[in-house]
C-alpha cells in the first residue's frame, strides 16, 4: 500500500492505469483515424485531457466521460472555454450511449474494463460507426479471433471489421505497462453478416458448438453435409479450428436444414 494512503481507504480509480502523455504519439495515432470535423466522438476516461485536446480540434463534438471526481474537476477547468465539448462525471458503464445519432469512439481505456467496454459498444442497439481503443495486445488478438475464434470474436465479427491500427511501445505510457499495448480499430459493417432475425439463433449456435461440439447441433448426416458446404475436410475438427467464414456457412446450414428456416 502506498505510504500516503490511510488504512482502509480505497485508491482513486486511476491508480495503476497507464496514461498516454506524449503529444507526438497522440497526434500520430489520431492522424491514422478517420476522425473529422463532421464527427461526434466519445472519449471514455479522458483523464487529464491529453487526448481530449486533440479531439476537440479535430471533431465537431466531443463527449468525454470521466469517473474520477478530481480529474473531472481538472477537465472542466481546462476546457471551460471550449464550446464543442461536454464532460460528464459518470461511470461509462452507466452512461447512456446516443440512441440514434451517428458517433465514433476514441479512448485509452482502463485495461481492467476492456471486456465490459467492448461488450457495451458492440452489443448496443446503436453501435459506433468506428472505434479506436487501446488495450493489451493479447486481448485485441482474442477479439480478432487470433489464433483461433472464441465466443467473443464470433459475436463481434458479424457486425464489425477489426484490425490493429497501432502497436505502441511500452515507453509511450506513464507509468510503463507490464504488457504490450495496441490500438484496436473496429469498423461497423454496413450489412451485418448475420441478419437481425437470425441473431438469437446464431448466439445459441456458437455458444453450444463451442461448449459441446457440432454433434450437439447436427445429426451425423446433417453435419457431413454442412462440413462439405463449408469446405471442412477433417471430420474430427474441433470448433476452435474452424475459420470465421466457415462458422458463417455452418450456421447457414443449421438455420436452413436443422431449424428449417429460409
Ligand atoms: C488509462 S487512463 C487514460 C487517461 C487518458 N485518456 C490518457 O490517455 O492519458 C483511464 C481513465 O479512465 C477513467 N475511468 C476508469 N474507469 C472509468 C469508467 N468506468 N468510466 C469513465 N471513466 C473511467 C480513469 O479515471 C482514467 O482517467
TrEMBL record:
InterPro entries: KsgA/Erm (IPR001737), rRNA_Ade_diMease-like_C (IPR023165), rRNA_Ade_Mease_Trfase_CS (IPR020596), rRNA_Ade_methylase_Trfase_N (IPR020598), SAM-dependent_MTases_sf (IPR029063). The lineage of its organism: Bacteria, Thermotogati, Thermotogota, Thermotogae, Petrotogales. Keywords: Methyltransferase, RNA-binding, S-adenosyl-L-methionine, Transferase. Signal peptide: none annotated. It is an enzyme of class 2 (transferase). The keyword S-adenosyl-L-methionine applies. It comes from the Bacteria. SMART domains: rADc. S-adenosyl-L-methionine binds at residues 18, 20, 45, 66, 91, 108. This is Ribosomal RNA adenine dimethylase. It comes from Defluviitoga tunisiensis. The keyword Methyltransferase applies. Its EC number is 2.1.1.184. Belongs to the class I-like SAM-binding methyltransferase superfamily. rRNA adenine N(6)-methyltransferase family. PANTHER family: DIMETHYLADENOSINE TRANSFERASE, DIMETHYLADENOSINE TRANSFERASE-RELATED. It holds the Pfam family RrnaAD. One of its GO terms (molecular function) is rRNA (adenine-N6,N6-)-dimethyltransferase activity. NCBIfam families: Erm23S_rRNA_broad. Coiled coil: none annotated. The gene is ksgA1. Residues 25-190 form the Ribosomal RNA adenine methylase transferase N-terminal domain.
